[in-house]
Amino acid sequence: MIDKEKKVLKNRAYLIFFGFVAVMITIIYTVISIQFTELEPGLMPGDRKIPERIVLDKPTPGDVLDKDLNPLVTTVSYYDVYMDPVVVSEALFESKIDSLAVGISDLFYHKSAAEISAELKHARKNGKRYVLIQKQVTNEQRKSLRALPIFKEGTFKGGIIDGKETSVRKNPKGQLAKRTLGYYRKDGEKEVAVGIEGAYQDYLAGVSGQQIQQKLANGWRNTGVIVQESVAGSDIVTTIDSDIQEVAHSELEKQLITMDAPEGCVIVMEVATGYVRAISNLRRKADSSYSESFNYAIGRNSPPGSTFKLAALMAALEDGKLTLDTEVNATGEYRFKGSKKSLFDSNYGNGYGKISLKRAFELSSNVIAPTIHEAYKSDPDQFIAKLEKFGLTKPLGISLSGEPNPKVSRPGSKIWSGISIPYMSIGYELEQTPLQTLNLYNSVANNGRMMRPQFVKEVRSSGKIIRSFDPIVLDEKICSMQTIKKVKSCLVGVMEDGTGKDLKTVEFKIAGKTGTVKLLSQSREFLGRSESEYQASFCGFFPADKPLYSCIVVIYKPKKYIYGAKVSGTVFAAVANKVFASNLKYHEAVNEASVKSNSLPRIKAGNKADASNVLANLGYEHNVEGGGEWIGAVRPLKEINLIPREIKKNSVPSVSGMTAKDAIYLLEKMGLIVEIKGFGKVVYQSIPEGTDLENGRLIKLTLKNI
Question: Are the C-beta atoms of 381 and 411 separated by less than 8 Å?
Fold first, then answer.
């Protein structure tokens, strides 16, 4: 029995001995492998050193900015921050840990200072050297952390550990022009370049640098030695006006909901330059919300419908085949040889009787089809030649990818027939993008001068302009000034006593044209009115006498109404009104010496100090009640009292009544990601007040100007 026990003890001793030897061999092998591997060419064995390698140092991509240099796309860096409480000296830890905990709690609101302090003390006591402070910390928050007690001593004395940096491209304005702004991705050899980000990636990307890494026992680590500095990407200054963009987006979305339509687009272009000031493309998702998922405005061909009657009228006037006074007989039903179906006027075939060509255009009568057919049936090439001169038969050559060629029937082609000219004259048997349609109207507004639509104005590096994109003239004169004046009068007539007369504007005239297209069925045929789906559009410019902007609105497959004026024209009018109202070019300066109103002003919810300063500067006496940084909305009667709004650290606050600036500042400071829709003041927030805070959670705000 004793011998058996001795044998067991002996075996255990051998096991411990050989285990120790194995560990020592592993350690020795690791040291030797570090010191004597990857011998560089030309070195003797005695000259061996720690292996090094050169790696790329990726640059920070440039931003995409609006015309006023506000970011539309930017790079946001996030860090996961940890703490090693063990490295902090006992005296420093004991004296400052509570102050550090208060600072962390104020920054992130997720835990109380007492909880944070207790966790860090417990971790130090148990020798835990990697305690999570916060995930997805922004660079600004990281700087604030490093200024706190203990942490300001740095990594080795203060224990702060920055995790791996993660860079994310972010659209601060959410869905606004998101598809046009685009993106760039590279997966191996495959590149996906979409929109402005894709088209200008060479500028945005910057130039990679080089730095040295050394191979240590736990892997490759940076030495801090820079071989070549990286060069940050340049910023792209777009032509987008964020104020106009917000109006276009919100008005389109509102109308899509009202009309129960699946998709639509809006483009606003500056007449004189061709700079695109707003472009919105919305598609309905499965949850019935709308998002920018496809660029209809520049990427999809469809029949333009009656908005194309402008081109047909211009051709006939320019060639001297017709005048605005030419009498036509609008019977309401029009039949052509070789066609199985008739064309009807929108008043259910009743027609308008004998009227002038100008009046037919204003009423959008399809009598234009037989009229143009009669004018060009003996020489269809002359009609096509005029369309070419108007820039309607080829792409515009914009800088963004995805623009298709217009589809135009030509004599001698397989699809050309005896009804091609009449159907083309009213916007069928041809297809083009909304941007291509808009460019013709913009040329008319610009007195015949055709511009190339542009989306980028400048490239800037470190704030300095390194390249400018000046307006590009495609054709100095697409037709005579006489023709331009005539068709302008027709477009104004549409709005004053034609299909657009119900669209109300304020203090200025609109020139435009409605368009309603019956879409082909899945079997590629036109069905009856009740069975068909439609595309409604409105295109024009404003103010009519001195055009500043041109605009097109296209809404696909509306359910409630089908006609262009009712469906798309209302969006056009709303955009025009709001752009007019906010543009100082249209308004006289406010009298600076005006007398202050006797009535007390309403105060929006927001920052207490800001409200107090404004009231003081305006000369209003007011009372500041309680503490805190924020106040609720105030509607004073006899006196102004600024009443505080309670903000709890661990729950979502109410931002109702605040402006976007104050709401975003408060919510992002509390760790939420904010997406806004509309303008004015907050009327709805997707996460209710009092909900427990979750860092990094998305909250959607709806604003209205009420």
Answer: yes
The Cα angle at residue 247 between residues 242 and 248, in degrees rounded to 5: 95
* pLDDT at 67 exceeding the cut of 90: yes
C-alpha distance from residue 151 to each of 106, 164, 435 (Å): 15, 18, 55
Sequence-distant (≥ 6) Cβ neighbours of residue 479 within 8 angstroms: 314, 318, 389, 390, 448
Is domain 55-236 annotated with CATH 3.90.1310.10?
Answer: yes
Q: What residue has token string 């069928």? A: 428
Angle of the 113-125 helix axis to the 90-108 helix axis, nearest 10 = 140
Among the listed residues 279, 276, 277, 283, the one whose alpha carbon sits nearest the alpha carbon of residue 253: 283
Distances (CA, A) of 636 to 596, 606, 681: 16, 16, 18
* Amino acid letter for position 12: R
**Over residues 405-424, mean pLDDT:** 92
* Superfamily of domain 242-322+377-455+471-586, CATH level 4: DD-peptidase/beta-lactamase superfamily (3.40.710.10)
pLDDT at 164 over 80: no
Tokens read off for 145 = 């952390």
Phi-psi region of 390 (alpha: psi -120 to 50; beta: other; left: phi over 0): alpha
Q: What is the DSSP letter of 431?
A: E
Please state, for a pLDDT cut of 70, what percent of the chain lies above it. 86
Condensed to tens digits (0 to 9), the pLDDT of residues 278-321 reads 999 999 999 999 999 999 999 999 999 999 999 999 999 999 99
Is the C-alpha dihedral spanning 288, 666, 73, 236 positive or negative?
positive
pLDDT over threshold 80, residue 218: no
Q: Where are the alpha helices (DSSP H) in 606-659?
A: 608-618
> Is there a contact between 51 and 214 (Cβ–Cβ < 8 Å)?
yes
Q: How confident is the model at residue 586 (pLDDT cuts 50, 70, 90)?
A: low
pLDDT of residue 530 exceeding 90, the answer is: no
Nearest CA among 283, 237, 246 for reference residue 268: 246
Q: Where does the pLDDT of residue 27 fall: very low under 50, low under 70, confident under 90, or very high at 90 and above?
A: low
Domain boundaries, the chain: 2-49, 55-236, 242-322+377-455+471-586, 606-704
pLDDT at 277 over 90: yes
Domain 606-704 belongs to what architecture? 2-Layer Sandwich (3.30)
**pTM of the predicted model, to two decimals?**
0.71
Asked if 192 and 198 count as a contact pair (C-beta separation under 8 A), the reply is: yes
Q: Rounded to whole angstroms, how far apart are CA atoms 201 and 401?
A: 13
Structural contact between residues 225 and 212, judged by C-beta atoms closer than 8 angstroms:
yes
Angle at 204 between CA 198 and CA 206, to 5 degrees: 130
Which range, of 201-205, 458-462, 465-469, 638-642, averages the lowest pLDDT? 638-642
- Quote the pLDDT of residue 44: 41
| 701 neighbors 682 (Cβ within 8 angstroms) | yes
State both tokens at 3: 């011998």
Closest CA to 167 of 206, 212, 193, 210: 206
**pLDDT tens column, 101-157:** 999 998 887 788 899 999 999 999 998 888 889 888 887 888 889 899 999 998 888
Tell me, what DSSP letter sits at residue 62?
A: P
Q: Is residue 494 within 8 Å of 569, Cβ to Cβ?
A: no
The whole-angstrom separation of Cα 632 and Cα 626 is 12
When computed from its CA atoms, the radius of gyration of the chain, rounded to whole angstroms, is: 34
